[in-house]
Structure formats: C-alpha cells, structure tokens
Amino acid sequence: METKKCPRCGADLPAAASFCPACMAVLNERKAAPPPKAKKRRWPWLALAVCVCAVTAALLLHGRGAQIGNGTAQADYAGYTVIASFNGNRAGVTKNSEKNVSLPAGSEINTITRVFVLDGDGNIVTDDFRALVASAELTLETLSGSENTVDVQAWGVYDDFPEQAYTGEIHMLGADSTQRVVWTLHMKNGDTLALYQTLYVREQQTITFTAEDTPMATAAELTALVKKIDTELDKNAIIEVYLPAGTYDCGLEIKGHAYNVCGAVNADGTPATVFTGTVAVSTEDPGFVELSNLSLRGSGGVGLDATAAVEMKNCAFEGFDTAVMVHNGAFVHPTDCVFRGNAVAMDFNTVTVHFDSPDFDGNTFDGNGTALLLESLPKGETLLLNGCVFRNNGTDIENRSTRGVDSSGAVFGNGG
Amino acid sequence: MYYDYIVSAAAKQDAGGICYWGKHNLYDWLCGRIDACFERERTLKENSRGSVELLRHKRTGQRVICRRYAGSGEVYRRLMGVSSPNLPAVFETAERGGRVITLEEYITGDTLDALLRGCPLTEGETRRIVRDVCAGLWVLHSMAAVHRDVKPENIILSGDRTVLIDFDSARMNKPEAAGDTRVLGTIGYAAPEQFGLAQSDCRTDIYAVGVLLNVMLTGEHPSKRLAAGRLGRVVSRCTMMDPNKRYRDIPHLLPEL
Predict the structure, then answer these.
(1) Of A76, A183, A362, B158, which sees the most CB atoms within 10 A?
(2) How far, in whole angstroms, is CA A59 from its chain's centroid?
(3) Looking at A133, A168, A203, which one is the last position of a domain?
C-alpha cells in the first residue's frame, strides 16, 4: 500500500493521486502545452491576393453613384462590410436579418437594430466609415398585420454602443405585425446603401395558474405543475404562476416558456414565498422570465442560476455562495431586491446578452463577500445603481468587464 | 478508520476485504472522496453512456465538473500532465472495469451553441474562435489523441478564452486498427470515418472543424449551404470525404485561418 501526504493540508492520499480532494491542491506537474506553429503559406496566394484587390478596386469604381444593397442585411461598400443586426452587442458582430418578438396584448417593448461596419481584416470600424456618410435613416414598411403598433422611436450614433456605426430603437406593442426594417445610408459621393431586416411581432397568449385553481402548495405539486406546463402547453404562451405563502423545500427549474412567477408578500411587503434550493432559468426559454416576491434561502451553492433573460422584483437572497449567477447569454435585471449574507450577491459572466436593462433601482446589498461582480459583460448601456444601498460588504463592486457602472446614485457605508 | 471515505462493497471484495491503494482502486477512492468532499449542484447531462454533474467543493466552494462514462479514460489521464488555456484542467481521473470517472475544471461562460442561436458570426470572430479551438485540438493531437466530438455545444467562450470541452468520445489514435469500433461523435459534425469507414485520426477533427467553421459563418451544414469566399474553400477542403485530401494536420490548416 503506497500512500502520500498532501503537501498543502496533510491529508492522506494514494500515491497515484494527482490532486487532493480535501483542499483542491493540484499535486502533479503540468507542462504548458506549446501552441501549434502554422506552416508557412506558399507565395501563389500573394499573387491571388493582388488579383482580388484589383478586381475589388474595379468593382468599386464601377459602383460609384449606384444604389447598393441586394435586399439583405449585409452589403459591401468601399472595402467595408456593412451589416445590420438585431444582436451582436459584444466584442464582435452577429449578422441576423430577422427577429421574432412575442408579447402579450397590452404590453410594449423596444428592440434595437444596429449597423456594424467591418474593414477588410474583419475589424470593427466606426469613425472612418461614418466620414463617408452624409446621413443615415431608419424606416419601417408594413408587410402584413397591424400598421400602427410598431414604430421607429429614434436612431443615430449612440455613445453607449461605441462599436456600432449607427443604432436605432424600434418600439412595438403586442399585436400581430410583420415589418420590413430599412437602414438607408446616403453617402457623400451620391451613392445610397440600403440594408434590410424583417421584424415579426406576434401577440402572445397568457395562461395563468393560481393556488386557488391548481394544486401547488407542496414541492411535489409545484414540480408536477412545472413538468405539466413544460410538456403540454403551447410553447409560445406566457405562463403566469401565482404561488402561495410558505416554504418550498426544493428548487425550481424554469424552461421552455416565458414565465411570470409571482410569490406572496407579508404585511410589510417582504417576500413570503420561500425556496431553499436553486431556481434555474434556462436558455431554452424563448422569452423573458419575471420573478417577483420570492425569497431564496441557501446554505451555499447558487440561488438563481440564470442562462436566460430574467426580470427580478422584490426578491431576497440569503446564504448562498453565489446568490445570482448570470451566464451563457443571460441577463438579470433586479429591482427592489435584497441580497444579504452571500459570498457573492450577483455574478455576471457572459460575453453576450440577448436582453439588457440597465436600471438596477432600489436594491440592497448587505453583508455579502462581494456584492456586484462583473466578471464578463459586453459593452452596452451603463448600469445605473440608483437608490441601491451597499453596506457591510467585503467588496461592493468588482468590475472586470467592459461594461460601465454608474454608482453615483447609490448609498455606501458600514453599520446600520 | 484511516481514510474518511466510503469504500464500495465491490472494492472491498476485490481487495480481499482489505482497503489498499492499488492502481485500479483509485476509482473507488475518488468516488468516495467525491461523496465526502463535494455536493452535487445539478446534473448537466445524462444518457446511456454516463453523466456529467456540476459539483461544489464543500470547503472552498469551488465548482468542478464530474464526468462518469463507459469507455477509456486514457485521454483524460494524459491531459492531467498538461495545461492549456484552450482546454479545461483535468484534476483527477480513474477507471475501473470500463467505467471512467474524472474531475475537471468548471468553465463558466457561453457555449458557442448559445451564441450561434439564430445569428451566424462574422469572419473575424469566427477565425479567432476557430484558431483557439485548433490550439486546443493541437494539444490532443500532439499526444496522439483525437477529440471526435468537436461541435458548438462543446466550445465555451469565457471572456477572451475559448475552451474545448468534453473528451468522452476522444480516443488514442491506434494506426493498426481497421476502423472505429463504435460510432461516437455528433451526426453532422462526425467525419465519414467515424461511421466505420476507416480509422479516425486527427483529420477526423479537421473535418469537424470544417463543419464548425461553416456553421459559424452561415448557420448551416456545408452540405446545405457552403460559406462564401476563401473560408468556404477552407471548409470544402476540411470536409473532403477522403481524409487524405483534407489538411493533413492543424499546422497546415492554421495559415488558412
């Protein structure tokens, strides 16, 4: 029997062990893997590149004064690639010419359309291209359905989106409508460049469950209800679940639908519906998830594990390693929430987001190791912490991302 | 009790009723220590071959991935000796009777699959990500291993780091074998030789990189719509039916990216 001691914590280990499970020390020697060395290209490619440049120059000369655009969201112009996108708000560009939005009647939402410009090397450029543009215009053409429920709200050069040459906002209501979104760039030399996208807006059905009409008082009943919703109900419907006061000794997995999960409140307005396990919101969800009046209490682990867009109102988190983990394209927007006694209250770690709402109003971070941790979050509108209270935290805000944070409206201090 | 862990009944039987640390017994030791030192957060994947679980270390709170599957753990074992920004760190691996258990670094971030949903990427971004994937594959190929399941779900973007994960389908390249004994990998990304036509080698991964490149640029498999321009030609060569007509290895593919 061969054994050895862990050099860090002294635990007894088999001689063949490569790490110590007691303290997580790595015991074996690891060599850094060398990167692959590219084989040199052969010179004929250079000749080909020269030919391509010549052809491109000829095409550009031929295109002067022309209407440019082939009915899609992308066009090549003067050595640049110009792309209209509904997404792509990160260090890079995604090209997508269509967007589907489902929302219930009576609700409204804004979506953003963006114009990105890439140079010949695939790098994002803005000022150099805009110097060629006399004016930009964003318009809509109704292809089917309602004409009056979708409109352009604004467009221009937005400081919050420095990688986008132009940014436009489209406002829509919950009614069926298909719109052609047209970016028209009038160039100084008389050329006109047009980019086209399509926006599909669909009215969404809402299905509501309450404790009065559906068994949901116990963990088993709630789990059965969520499973039934996931397997049996129309995926395009919004699911509203109004939970009773009480403690669910379990977590909750939300996926497959847009959800509105609303707990009960105590007389003082604090959440009266408690979960003791992880609430997981996954990316399979096609829409938003709203969580309100929920109290999550843990003894380590993760409270809310979000890989989808979550609106969170009047929720409380206590005793977690990470109270809210935001990753894999997710965004969590907290309002009037309380984070108390967690190692990390909110941890954002995603390089892209499909939903973004920067007003983090009225949240309280009390006695956490780190209150707000931005490990990775793409550039976008500056997060505003108006009315937030930070007290007794080890670290209030740790921002390693490229996203700006404005804490001028927050209150900081210890005690109290 | 010398060690505070649970030894399975089978392990005790194998050891003649006496606990000892033979090579094959590392499996039971690791199973026991995982039960004692970690708590399960959730199951990430589960199928007939095995499971992938997210665990949390009770003392440090560090999260790790635990894989249990039927097959060979040789690739994971070799990866314990190297470090690469494009592969997860493998902390420990052990196998017993064709069952493998391994503990590895948990990479937080976005899967490429999530990024690609409905929106292909630009050339510049695609090149950067695929170059990083190639760097990860090169580590495997340098140790004569083949990944055999390169696809967006197995690529995680964590900040500036691109990490290739999931080596459950990986195997050591053994030139004497006539053909792969089992079909592994993901249909669409799997090269023809993975369906038993020939032995898989590093060019099997080159095929999958070609499909990946095309999906990142167009959102579709090259058989449906081939990417335009030079990268489209790179895709074509990567996905040749005959492995001999593909790029022979990663260093020959890299200049085209």
Answers:
(1) A183
(2) 40
(3) A203
Structural domain including A333 reads 205-413
User: Does residue A256 sit within a domain?
Assistant: yes
Q: What pTM value is reported for the model?
A: 0.47
B56, A321: Cβ pair inside 8 Å?
yes
Q: Compute the nearest-CA separation of B241 from chain A (Å).
A: 23
Task: State the residue for tokens 């309380």.
Answer: A338
Amino acid at A292: S
**DSSP label of B194:** G
Q: Rounded CA gap, A279 and B124, in Å? A: 37
Nearest to B86 by CA among B12, B137, B11: B137
Q: Best interface-test mutation with A: which of B35, B65, B91 has the largest number of A CBs within 10 A? A: B91
Count of domains for chain A: 2
**Within 10 Å of residue B16's Cβ, how many Cβ atoms?**
7
Residue numbers in B near A73 (CB within 8 A): none
Does domain B110-256 sit in CATH 3.50.50.60?
no
- Chain A nearest-CA distance from B232, in A, is 16
In the A/B pair of chains, how many CB contacts fall below 8 A?
Answer: 169
Are A39 and B56 inside 8 Å of each other by CB? no
Residues 6 or more apart from A2 whose CB is under 8 A from it?
A14, A15, A16, B21
* Alpha carbons within 13 A on the beta-carbon side of A231: 6
DSSP secondary structure string for all residues of A322-377: EEEEEESS-EEEEES-EEES-SEEEEEE-S--S----B--S-EEES-SEEEEEEE-
CATH code, residues B9-105 = 3.30.200.20
Domain ranges, ordered by start, for chain B: 9-105, 110-256
Q: Output the tens digit of pLDDT for each of chain A's 416 residues.
A: 478 888 888 888 888 888 899 988 888 877 787 778 776 555 455 555 655 655 555 555 554 567 887 778 888 888 888 888 886 544 345 556 788 777 777 677 777 888 988 888 778 888 999 999 998 999 998 888 877 788 887 788 877 677 889 988 888 887 888 999 999 999 988 889 999 898 888 887 888 899 988 999 999 999 999 988 988 888 778 888 999 999 999 989 888 888 889 999 999 999 999 999 999 988 554 467 889 999 999 999 999 999 888 989 999 999 999 999 998 878 899 999 999 999 999 999 987 766 677 889 899 999 999 999 999 888 777 899 999 999 999 999 999 998 899 999 999 987 54
| Nearest CB to A3 within list B21, B87, B121 | B21
Measured CA to CA, the distance from residue B97 to residue B41 in angstroms comes to: 27
Residues of B with catalytic roles:
149
